[in-house]
Automatic annotation (TrEMBL):
One of its GO terms (cellular component) is cytosol. Dual-specificity methyltransferase that catalyzes the formation of 5-methyluridine at position 54 (m5U54) in all tRNAs, and that of position 341 (m5U341) in tmRNA (transfer-mRNA). The lineage of its organism: Bacteria, Pseudomonadati, Pseudomonadota, Gammaproteobacteria, Pseudomonadales. Its EC number is 2.1.1.35. One of its GO terms (molecular function) is rRNA binding. It is an enzyme of class 2 (transferase). The active site is at C319, C319 (nucleophile), E353 (proton acceptor). S-adenosyl-L-methionine binds at Q185, Y213, N218, E234, D294. Pfam families: tRNA_U5-meth_tr. This is tRNA/tmRNA (uracil-C(5))-methyltransferase.
Length: 381
């Protein structure tokens, strides 16, 4: 994550990212990227800190990349949410005052929400038991937080192991269970921009959406309003559990979720292999016009690249513009970039999130929507 914090230089840093993205997308005749800014401080909803002990006293510590020997001792972190900053020192002082909480404590992790909930995980180099539970329960009540204790092979959850987030997307509020240790977008305000942009560029469709790498359903929920049906896939068991909870929490009834990797989805859709996890799901009954992908930093693997080329539209969210450009080098043979965006999820770092909408060459979105509405099972919006 780094420790640089320079609000005065934010606009220049963002412009450099925009220029870098434009340079990467220039070979594909992409339009100007839409740029979505971040708050300049208190934007990061999760953070983790190692503890560094000096004269037996613990301090929050961060390190420059590649250097874990020279700590930067901190009491506040301006990029972290206000809730994290409010909790940092009272939590540390309570742990220093009570050996049941502080002995062999080596790491503290925070997960907060835009709604103000906070889940804190205390990590130990010793076993923790019922005595720890009693002290931790008092601390959780004192600070109005959810608290988890972790030691080797043990996880003690006092109340629940997740926070409940509420995200506003184009006038509707979506509710999300975000689990401790699970992946969530760290910048909640920018995440709302990402979801709104994806929903808007998806348009209104009478056919179906195939979603790969759906995670906890972050994009799945808003996109479900733009398609007749959604088949969403994810490999991580914990993410699948959260996604199913979030689908139920928001009373979404047109999403089917399957635990498959992107490679397995490719095998299933191309008829190479059958999966018991797909029993009762009629893949032939879907009419996929759009595929949505939000892959890991490595981008799309060759087989998945070949699969997505077969769809009229590809909506691609990327956390690594270099691998996005590499994937576009192949996708550009069959598709053209019609929309693109820069989402500044990670101010004061070189990292950026980006999005592109690709349409198959010769494809007309308007005529396709009209044709889909005339098909059996088509659902005009």
């Amino acid at each position: 994550m780094g420790t640089a914090f320079d609000p005065a230089g934010y606009d220049q840093q963002l412009e450099e990212k925009r220029q870098r993205l434009m340079s990467l997308l220039q070979p594909f005749a992409a339009p100007e990227p839409e740029v979505f800014t971040s708050p300049r401080e208190h934007f990061r909803l999760r953070a983790e800190f190692r503890l560094w002990y000096e004269q037996g006293q613990p301090h929050y510590a961060m390190f420059e990349p590649g250097d874990n020997r020279r700590p930067i001792l901190i009491e506040q972190l301006p990029i972290a949410s206000k809730r994290i900053n409010e909790l940092m020192m009272p939590l540390l002082e309570a742990c220093k005052a009570d050996p049941l909480l502080g002995r062999k404590l080596f790491q503290i992790e925070f997960l907060t929400t835009l709604t103000g909930e906070a889940l804190v995980t205390l990590c130990y180099h010793r076993p923790i038991d019922e005595e720890w539970d009693a002290a931790a329960t008092a601390l959780a009540q004192q600070l109005d937080i959810l608290l988890i204790g972790r030691s080797r092979g043990r996880k003690r959850v006092l109340q629940r192991d997740h926070v409940l987030e509420a995200l506003s997307v184009n006038g509707r509020t979506w509710h999300y269970q975000q689990t401790e240790g699970g992946f969530t977008q760290p910048n909640g305000q920018v995440n709302q921009h990402m979801l709104a942009w994806a929903q808007e560029v998806a348009g209104d469709n009478a056919d179906d959406l195939l979603e790969l790498y759906c995670g906890n359903g972050n994009f799945t929920l808003p996109l479900s309003t733009r398609f007749r049906r959604v088949l969403a896939t994810e490999l991580s068991k914990s993410s699948v559990r959260s996604a199913l909870e979030n689908i139920a929490l928001n009373q979404v009834d047109n999403v089917t979720l399957v635990r498959l990797s992107s490679e397995e989805v490719t095998q299933a859709l191309t008829g190479v292999r059958e999966f018991r996890r797909l029993q009762g799901i009629d893949l032939s009954g879907y009419d996929f016009g759009t595929v949505f992908v939000d892959p890991p930093r490595a981008g799309l693997d060759p087989a998945t690249l070949e699969l997505v080329k077969g769809y009229q539209r590809i909506l691609y969210i990327s956390c690594n513009p270099q691998t996005l450009a590499a994937n576009l080098d192949e996708l550009h043979e069959t598709h053209r970039v019609v929309r693109c965006a820069l989402f500044d999820q990670f101010p004061y770092t070189h990292h950026m999130e980006s999005g592109v909408l690709l349409e198959r060459r010769g494809f007309s979105a308007a005529s396709s929507t009209a044709a889909a509405a005339r098909r059996p099972g088509g659902r005009p919006e």
